[in-house]
Amino acid sequence: MLSNADIEALEDILFAEPWGDHALDFFGFHGVVCASVIGPVRLRAEDLFCLATGSDTLPDDGVPEIFARCVKQLGEDMAHALDMGQPLELPEPEDGDPMNALENWCAGFVDTFLEHEESWLEAAAEEEVADLMVPMLTLSGLFEGDDFTKVRNDEKLSARMAEAIPDSLTDLYLLFHAPD
User: Fold this and answer.
1) Which of 57, 65, 51 is CA-nearest to residue 10?
2) pLDDT mean across residues, the chain
3) What is the pTM assigned to this prediction?
4) FRET pair for 154, CA 20 to 30 Å: which of 22, 62, 70, 141?
5) Which residues does 40 contact at the CB level (< 8 Å), separation at least 6?
6) Rg of the chain over CA atoms, in angstroms?
C-alpha cells in the first residue's frame, strides 16, 4: 500500500510540466499499474511513465525514483493479493466524486489494455477477454457508443458494472497467469 506522502509525491510528478495537462491522476495511475499486473505483458516503469504522463519521451534524467518505487510497490501488492486469491481493492477518493475517480481508474486501465491489445487478445480467447473487459471499457468514459452512454447514465447499471470490476480483474489475472 502506498502512503499518503507517496501518493502526493507521485501526483506532484504527474502534474508537473511538461506533461501535466495530459497526465493521469493517482486513480488513473493505479489503473495503469493494475493493467500491467493483470495483463500478459508486465510493463517496465519507463513504459508506465509514458502511459501515465501521456508523453512519448522520458525525462532527460530518466523515470523519477519515487515513480519507479511506487510502480514497484503497487505492482507487488496487487500481484500478491491476486496470488493469495484476494480481490483487488480499487482506490477511493477521500473526498470528491467516487464515480469520477472510478472513471479515471478505468481510463488508465483501458489505455494500458489498448496500448497492448494485441498481446492480450493473443494470450487468451478474444471473446473471453472482451467479456471480462466490459465493466472497465464501459465506465472508462473513453467510448461514446449508445450502449456505453446508456449504462453510464443509469445509476443502477453503473453501480453493477463497478461492483463487477474486482471479479473481472481476478478472472483476467487468472486467465493470463494461472498455471495450465
Assistant:
1) 65
2) 93
3) 0.94
4) 22
5) 116, 119, 120, 122, 123, 124, 176
6) 16
